[in-house]
Specification:
The protein has about 375 residues and is α/β, with parallel strands linked by helices. Helix content is about 30%, strand content about 15%. The protein has helices at about 1-10, 15-25, 65-75, 110-115, 150-160, 200-205, 210-215, 220-225, 240-245, 250-255, 300-325, and strands at about 50-60, 85-90, 100, 135-140, 145, 160-165, 185-195, 230, 240, 265-270, 285, 290-295, 325-330, 335. Helix 3 (about 65-75) packs across helix 11 (about 300-325).
Length: about 375
């Protein structure tokens, strides 16, 4: 399978924008078509009871296709079984080959709920989205996946309920063992669930959308209240970058090195900075006013360099595959079988007369070569 081959090779908002993007890119139907040609959709497991989906979300203009593609590459390097990678979005332009692009379910959200509180994330619990999945694992776009995701999947498969990150405590509480720290509820950067057991999250929310967004600060506060049968990831599965890797001023000037939490499976960048905001030149400052770093972080740069290399490899493989599957259409155009449109049919706009497919966007803002 492609993701195993690549793993061996590499080792390791605005509501107006949203509505405009939906219309521009015709994101009005669920794409359940399986990409042809063998690139990393990786599976035909419907009805098997063993299907895994990794899902992320992108809306508005704060995040780009490059951020989705980098996460996809990180997942590819760290999956041990077949999976589908789904991006729920209002704009699927420039996403890498192999990403299953679907529209964000309609929750009836008011305009302000798209800008604050991450309320669209509740849409991942929509019953029609993942009817065959055994496990759905949600990842925010600003996380770094650095070790196998198998332990997350195995835990969700065994527990069958919502498994989510526990919200981190302020720094002083870290002096105590985790069991003695106050439970601040859920933190929704990384969570997994069995779709069949959480359908009511979506139905309850859509039945009282206005009341809920008034009563709760954000999606994770609502999940903490609404989902009583839940558990947290084991300590160390996910670490907070700003709490585990950076220091407050002026200690950060005395200890400027940003250490890599090598044992963590996922590094969560909540608040400032985003991981790509550390991709700066020497002497350039990033982070918040009181907690910041200066200059590039080598191990973060290496992560995104690996992602760009993997995306380039996927693009080359996709073009080779498309050349092997050119077919002649009735109107005389050569159509590649690999890039599918929303109905699962070949899209003549991607491969015409043997031309190369569009390359995926990477974090430099350019396309992969």
């Amino acid at each position: 399978m492609l993701f195993r081959i690549l793993k061996k090779c590499f080792g390791v908002s605005d509501v107006a924008d949203i509505n405009g993007n939906r219309a521009k890119h015709d994101l009005t139907t669920i794409n359940i078509g399986k990409p042809e040609g063998g690139l990393p959709s990786l599976l035909d497991h419907e009805g098997s009871g063993e299907m895994v989906t990794i899902v992320c979300m992108k809306w508005g203009s704060e995040f780009t296709a490059a951020h989705v593609n980098a996460l996809y590459a990180g997942v590819l390097r760290n999956m041990d079984e077949a999976f589908v990678f789904v991006c729920l979005t209002d704009d699927g332009l420039d996403l890498a080959t192999g990403i299953d692009v679907r529209p964000i379910p309609d929750l009836g959200l008011p305009e302000r709920a798209w800008r604050r509180g991450c309320w669209p994330k509740v849409g991942v619990f929509a019953p029609h989205l993942f009817p065959f999945e055994d496990v759905v694992l949600f990842l925010d776009l600003d996380v770094m996946v650095q070790h196998s995701l198998a332990p997350f999947i195995e835990l969700v498969r065994r527990r069958r309920h919502l498994v989510i990150q526990r919200e981190w405590n302020p720094d002083l509480w870290s002096l105590l063992p985790p069991i003695l720290r106050p439970d601040r509820g859920a933190q929704s950067s990384v969570f997994g669930f069995n779709p069949a057991n959480l359908e009511r999250v979506y139905s309850d929310f859509t039945a009282e959308t206005a009341r809920i967004i008034e009563a709760f600060k954000n999606d994770q506060a609502y999940l903490s209240h609404a989902v009583k049968r839940r558990s947290y990831w084991p300590t160390g599965f996910c670490v907070s970058f700003k709490r585990s890797c950076t220091h407050y001023f002026p200690i950060n000037l005395l200890q400027p090195k940003i250490r890599q939490p090598r044992k963590a499976k996922v590094i969560v960048f909540h608040g400032k900075p985003r991981p790509w905001e550390t991709l700066v030149g020497n002497g350039v400052r990033w982070g918040s006013k009181r907690r910041f770093g200066i200059g590039p972080v080598p191990w973060i740069k290496r992560y995104f360099d690996q992602a760009d290399a993997m995306l380039a490899s996927i693009h080359v493989s996709a073009n080779r595959e498309s050349q092997l599957h050119l077919v002649r259409s009735p109107d005389g155009f050569s159509q590649g079988r690999l890039p599918a449109n929303g109905q699962g049919e070949p899209n003549p706009g991607h491969v015409v007369q043997g031309a190369a497919m569009p390359a995926a966007q990477n974090l430099t803002g350019k396309v992969s070569p």
